[in-house]
Amino acid sequence: MDEKEKITAKKHEEPFVCTDLGTFMAQNEQEPEWLLEGILLSDGTTMLAGAPGAYKTWIALYIALHIAIGKPLFGMDTKQASVIYIDEENSIALLRERIKKIAGNWSQQEQDLVSRNFHIAYNARGVLENNYSPYLEKHIMEHGIKLIVLDTFRKGFRGDENSSNDVSNFFHNVIDDAKRKYGVSWLLLHHLGKKQNTKEMESARGSSAINGGLDVQMNIQDCGEGRITLHQTKTRSEKKAEPMDLQIEEDEDDTSLAFVLTDASKRRRSVNEEVAEEIIRRCQLQGTEYAFQKSTMDKQLLGSFSRSAVKTALKLLLRRGKLSSPRMGHYVWKSEVQKPSLPSSSPPNTDEVEKNTDASPPVGKKISPKVPDKGKFLFQKSLLRRWSTNE
Fold this sequence. Notes:
Blueprint: H1 3-13, H2 21-27, E1 34-36, E2 40-41, E3 45-50, H3 56-69, E4 82-87, H4 92-103, H5 108-117, E5 118-122, H6 134-143, E6 145-151, H7 164-182, E7 185-191, H8 198-202, H9 208-212, E8 216-224, E9 227-235, E10 244-250, E11 257-261, H10 263-284, E12 289-293, H11 294-300, H12 307-319, E13 323-324, E14 330-334, H13 350-355, E15 378-380
Parallel strand pairs: 3-7, 3-8, 4-5, 4-6, 6-7
Antiparallel strand pairs: 1-2, 5-15, 8-9, 9-10, 10-11, 12-14, 13-14
Helix pairs in contact: 3-4, 3-5, 10-12
């Protein structure tokens, strides 16, 4: 276990941790980790808010399915993580249909991997009230869950969303408790406030305690003609997500669906790539190794790129393993820097898929639409099996 893992384990195990500033600063040199940069922080809480029918469930499923296998999306890498999708909003038939449209055309290896790493939970409302669910906790431990999607926040608990006390209790006893114990991330789906003024529409519906408990809030808007926008209204991190314009692409027979960046969004992202390439070029001119500070690179690129663009590019290069950062604000480039183990866009390892075949759910298992007994928490992975066959 490395130093960072020891610190994380200590934070999750001990209810109270106090240390001097020198020790604290020495322990937290690493950059924050993201499942999806600027949107889903590891060990954080993100809310996706929008009007009814604004593709909230579609986008949440799209993000979660990609993260389950570490598949890049929206022009960004993802950190692979096992996922629980808690659905209290949609019927099983509708959920199956949407999952098939998103992932039905993926390779067989990707489908096998997502079948193991993406878990469906339903009938969970009763166990997500004011007590931490033993069913959920058991599933997190058994499957190493690192992302929980709650669709929707309002139906996840039976309290009053306008009561700061009810909302705070839910965050403390359920959401924050899972984060403290197991380092999971949460993605909550919710509606925006009523249209009274511009500021009101930026905030999620209900008590201000909702917004106070979030690390990131992303608002989604249906712009019509198959186009939606995602923009960030809150973040506690220095890393801010750029606004994204997404085009909905469906095939002719309406069996698959994807969200792709429009040309305008691609142009914004190409600037970051351009700055990153220029930084590497300047490092290469210095020989096989070059150590520098951010302020030095700012001065070298002054007049060509903004300081914020340089900062974004440096973080991009750190994620890709092109640079290392021995301490904050200091960077080292070497002609061969060992790359971190990040997911790639290549298909998953076939041997790994076959090795875990025994852990997969029974093929063709049917789901009973009958409502289970109150309080029982059900998980279903066979929703994701046999994409190309009609049941």
